[in-house]
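For the sake of transparency, this paper describes our internal protein records without simplification. Such a record has a labelled line for the sequence and another for the backbone structure tokens. Nothing more is needed to write down the fold, since each code stands for a local backbone conformation. For reference, a complete record is included directly beneath this paragraph.
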Amino acid sequence: MKIKPMTPTERLKYLISRYNELKLIREKEKINPSPDHKGKIKVIKIELNRLGYEIALATGKIAREEYLEKKKKLFDVE
């Protein structure tokens, strides 16, 4: 089975949906704590920080590609 590579916009959409899922899980955990509440909240916090960082990188990558494309169109006269 081959895994299809994701475009930067698809990756950004995936990361944002994953981030929102974890935020929802965190809210449910705050309302109805599980026996291992502290550990679960700590893991969710770490994962949310990681996803936030990856979202920032993905957004920067998309912006950079758009900038280079715009710059190329501006200076590419045929």
User: Anything to note?
Assistant: The longest helix spans residues 37-75. The CA atoms of residues 27 and 67 lie 38 Å apart. The two ends are 43 Å apart (CA to CA).
